[in-house]
Amino acid sequence: MDRSILLACTLLLFFILTAFESEREGGSIGQYAEEHAVQDMLDIVRGGDHADYHFSTSEDIRVGTFQSSWSYGEAFIDQESDALEQTDEWYAVVYQDDKPVNVMAASRNENGKYAFMGVGFGQDLAVAMDEAGTDAGKLVYEFPTDAWFMIEEDSVYGLNQPAESLIGKEDWSLTRYMEYVHERYSDSEVIMEHGQNTATGGAEALPEKGGSERSGLVYVGLGTLIMAVVVMSYRMMRRRSSESYKV
Fold this sequence. Notes:
Number of helices: 9
Distance between the termini: 47 Å
Largest sheet: 9 strands, mixed
Strand content: 15-25%
Order of helices and strands: HHHEEHEEEHEEEHEHHH
Structural class: alpha+beta
């Protein structure tokens, strides 16, 4: 299954479920990581589609340190400042049998708590983040081109194939990278025309989908909605059972 469809499916389910009280929340990203992150990944491993996320059935799961993602502000795009803006989205490498397999995300929800956001950013990104280490620099994600960059002081490099397709495999200077960002996102009319979101780093417009691919996305959306209803119904039933027990 295409990675973008998997990610869209996971994120859609997340946004639906965050309208309800989450059973796995942390007051800080550290608390969520310590108490809930592994269990959320075990749910994926135990699911029927675990192979789509490059997981086997092994439950030897470990989640690495969560790293914050960063975005371009107006000053960065206009080349007035090299400062990036920190987001409330955090990413960590997921290890299975001590090997980097995928990347999971957590974010702060409407309740101000940190909870699971999604998984499925790719094994190539997991390997690259593992090799870079958690103190390497600042993560920048461009959606929907699925391009990940690492900014280390005056050096910038791509972490996955989509990023390398944009800037190549060689490191860029921060100055050169800022020029690249300025060229891509300084035209506000183009950004508005294509619905680009520079708050998350910006991205070029998605290509037109063929009829069969659009139909596939519709079915994925319907399937995710049904799944969300089932999960929410289960939560409500379990909450009612718990309240009855207390009485």
